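Write out the 3D structure for:
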Amino acid sequence: MTLRERAQRLLTFRNLRTRFTVLYMGLFALALVLSAVAVATAVTSSARRMVSDEMTSAGAVYGQLWASRSAQLRQGAAVLAQDYGFREAVATDDAPTVRSALENLRTRQGVDGALILGVDGYAASAGINPDDAALDTLFKGLDSGGVDSGVLSIGGQPFRVVAAPVNAPVLIGWVVFAERLDAAQMRNLEQLSAIPLTAAVVTTRTTTPSDGLPVTVQTDEGPSMQLAHILPGFDPAVRPALLLTYPLHRAMKPYQALFLWLIAIGAAGLAVLMAGTWVLSRGLTRPITALDEAVHRLQKGEYVEAPVTSGDEIGRLAASFNAMVGDLRDRESRLTHMALHDQETGLPNRLALERQAGGHAEAWVILFGVDRFEVVRNAIGYDSMARLLATLGARLSALAEGAPLARVGAGALGLIIVARNKTEALEAAERLAGAAQAPIEVNGAPVDITLTAGVAGHGAAGSDLSSPVDRAAIALDQARAMRRPSAAFDEAAYGDPGDNLSLISELMTALNEGEVSLAYQPKYDFRAEGITGVEALMRWTHPRRGMVSPDLFIGMAEETGHIRPLTEWAIRRAIADQKTMAAAGHALIVSVNISGRLLSDESFAEFALNEVATSGADLCFEITETAVMDNPDMALRIVDRFADAGICVSLDDYGSGLSSLTYLKRIRADELKIDKSFILGLDDSSRDALLVKSTIDLAHGLGLKVTAEGVETPTALALLRGMGCDLAQGYLIGRPVPMAALLDRLAAPAEDAQAAVG
């Protein structure tokens, strides 16, 4: 895991912890705010109710005090108004006596002013000097008979005014007491309240608040509660009132400590919650982080388990993850075992052997192939063969000092040894193969086995075939091809398969470009003592590679399906060349090789028959005896069609394969060609001579002509003549040559031709 990836995941889970913390803190803060709002609302409501109640009570008290004081002043005024002397003084307009009586009574009553107001407009005062407007308002109010006490504005200041009528015996005026409603008077009233109210008498021509109902208003001190107690007045247009004011912040001041404690408790709770939430979220995210780390390591192929720190859901999730990891580990172990072992024998397989080979310079791979594997397997059965291979593997491993042994192919076992060079590796392979070839008991019966070994080391860097196992497998095939018990990989003999494979794609182009041609090898007739036929052999002159071996490109053409167009071209070319030879005065039979793969192709047979019938050519089709073994019924039917059409059929390479007298009897052939492997040994081997003589006699007995291939010495030619062979073919007779060279050879004097064959 890179540092950046680790940092990103750490940041992710830190963000998760932060989100947890912020979420819980947010919820707590919301609850705290709601609680604070509820408390503040309750406290405020309680304070408002308390203030409202106090103000209502204070208003009621002020009303009673107003009424009581007014009654007291009215009584004092009434006493003076009923005094006989005072009434006489008023009636006689004795001003000094009136003022003296008024001053004396003002002093006793403790009022600011006293006056006598006559119905005729006479006025005398003591302590105050009311202006005409005030006297006029007072007179109107008293004269109306509706008010005898109330608030009167004198000189711009409010006064409490109480009047008593003076009757002599009719109304002649009023004795009036005036008491200034100033700040000192209001302070006296304020001190009577349980709360520090602010009292003031207001006279206004606007509408005042409802009488006795506290309301909330905005003042210079902020939100305040006000209660207006309506007072009587002498001016109908003016509504005087006693206005009680109490700022709400004063009501809330006793609760400030409570609010501070609530804030402190909330902050402390928030801090504790933040710490607790952080610890809790860390406890939650730590196992999640560990689980995430384990998942990422599992994604990279590491089998790690997450720690189980609790029994809750996260703990159970971690336990389930660990169980899954265990199952995956076991499953991968089983899959790895299956991928690296053979299912039939339980031995390690090819992949395991390749991994074991590694890059050790002195490591050599030895593959042991069980000869006649299919024959033995078919005889004892698949299960028994698997047990035989397992037993053989254990034997080879023990002989190789415990070296692990693997099953590389159906009948191939391989192991790795350490050797200094190829010679030492080959010696070890032959020694192990020889020691392991003892019979193996299977199902209570001994089974004889023979082994062939292939040895190979690592290929050169950049080689197309660098795997030592592949090289050893090819070495095993090379050993079997050479009929040797063991062989080391021969890179020169193996060639370049990749380069050779590209020839197939170039072959069809070569036909069109004239790179492919036919070379003709003459066939000598012992009885006619001359050349009576030729075999057409295909040659390819590559512009870059030069001469390409026929065994190489014809074999690949058979494997890839290109053999048919190649053979069709050869038949057409042979027919054309036969006409050229006939025009030159040489009536020769031309033999063309037919691949066994084409003997089951009805459409090819139609083509060949049509070409021969159309041209009237005298051709001989050479086939191998093994060509009819894959699909014998179809092959024999096509051969019969060739014979019915008058086309000579020749059995090529007789004796090189598993010759069967049954097929020899069934095939309608005209000629039998003995393989050159028997002819080349005629000079030195009496055994080969006996086999050749018996084959010639057998063929003649079946009515077949005999052609001997590979005649290279006069001795062999003489022996064949003596054995009654019909035709001879080989380098002694003539090498394969192009058409022009063949015509020159045929045009040579008969004596020269006869001298060439002795």
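Residues 36 and 262 are 8 Å apart (CA to CA).
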